[in-house]
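Recap quiz, item 2
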Amino acid sequence: MVDVQKIELDILGQVCPACLLVVLREMNTHRKRLKSGEAQLVIKTDHRDTTRTIPESARKMGYDVEVRNLEGYYEITIGQR
Amino acid sequence: MPITDPLLLASVVLLLGVILGIALFRGDYCMVAMLRDFFLIRDTTLLRSYAIYFVMASALFHLGGLAGLIPFLPPPTLQPPSLPTLAGGFLFGVGMVLAGGCVVGTLYKMAAGNLTNWIGFGGILAGSLLYAEVHPWIRRIAEKTTFIEALTVGQGHPLSQTLLLAILLAGGGMMIGRWLRRGELTVTAYARGYLQPWRVAVILALVNFCYYALTGSPMGVTTAFAKIAAYLEQLVLPGHVAALSYFQEDSVVFRVGGSLLSGGAGPRLDYISVTELALVAGIFLGALAGALYYREFRIYGLPPWRQGSAALLGGMLLAFGARLASGCNVKFFLGALPLLSWQGIFFTGSTLVGVALGTKILIRYIVR
């Protein structure tokens, strides 16, 4: 398996809806590499509602999304499988 | 029947607040997101849950009135709409988007340790104090610019009001039925202990009904915030607080049986302390319990400076707006709208304009 580059995005403690807006912007910036599977976007967030809005928006754009419950926060991975 | 014993009333309201705090935290039920995300990404998930809230609350309030469970229809906290209702709604809308939370949203997010919302809370206290300085002047404008004398749509015409309600509730019920059949009410979220928005809406309607039946009016919270601000200002400038008419007057006065109940924003123990303040304390405690239970209570340090400043300014704007309009989204969206109050309708209309503008400011200047 080829190494997938991880683009990390830490939005812990940021005000709503910064989370969603920043993620949408990053998805646009790295669109080519995310679509080709070269890179994955890994987001750390403590906003409960973003575990609804980010996966929903990303799936609509055709990405695969995985959400992990970590200690006290959530890690959302966006990319292509 | 309303409870008149202060200690009993405060305890029951505190309990209602705790239930609400847990539900709001678990569902991350943000009424700012509800409106903002429509303008931002055309997301109507949370708005749909509001439709459920509206139908349920409106039916409960009016049927409760018929059954004698709801003592006052309309409640003593409603006034006729005026220019300050419109201006207040607009500032409130802009402010809550910038602050990232309405008055209760700010509370349950503070309880989870979010410092941005603590900054927003500071802004809310400051905005309340600012309003106290101009209160007499604003109330004179309100008296002169009252544009509809009735409190609710169809007041004094019971037949037309019943008909209007029947149409609204039947229409709303059919819409909800369709969402149910298509499975559109259940959303996917991965948060621990996530509560579906429609469930939060149902809990909200039941809690507000109980609150209305027991206290005489639907829920309100912002006068309690002004009261907290007044207590704090009194520590520093007691003479000034004593001289401000806003802190001397009662914002609500009504009679239940033989007892006269009254309360206001002043730094004293009164009806607002045992209702609104107890509710605020309950919501905070409930959300804190939720955050601790799901192990999500965590303090992440200060937000980027743009967001922090926006939260402070937003808090001030929303509090000042709420004071101009004599209420916030809790009083108007949750209490007044299901009662078809004119004040609620005009406040909501101008709040939507404010939210649209706030969302533009947010995209352009705050989150970059």
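The mean pLDDT of chain B is 94.
Chain B has one domain: 6-366.
End of item.
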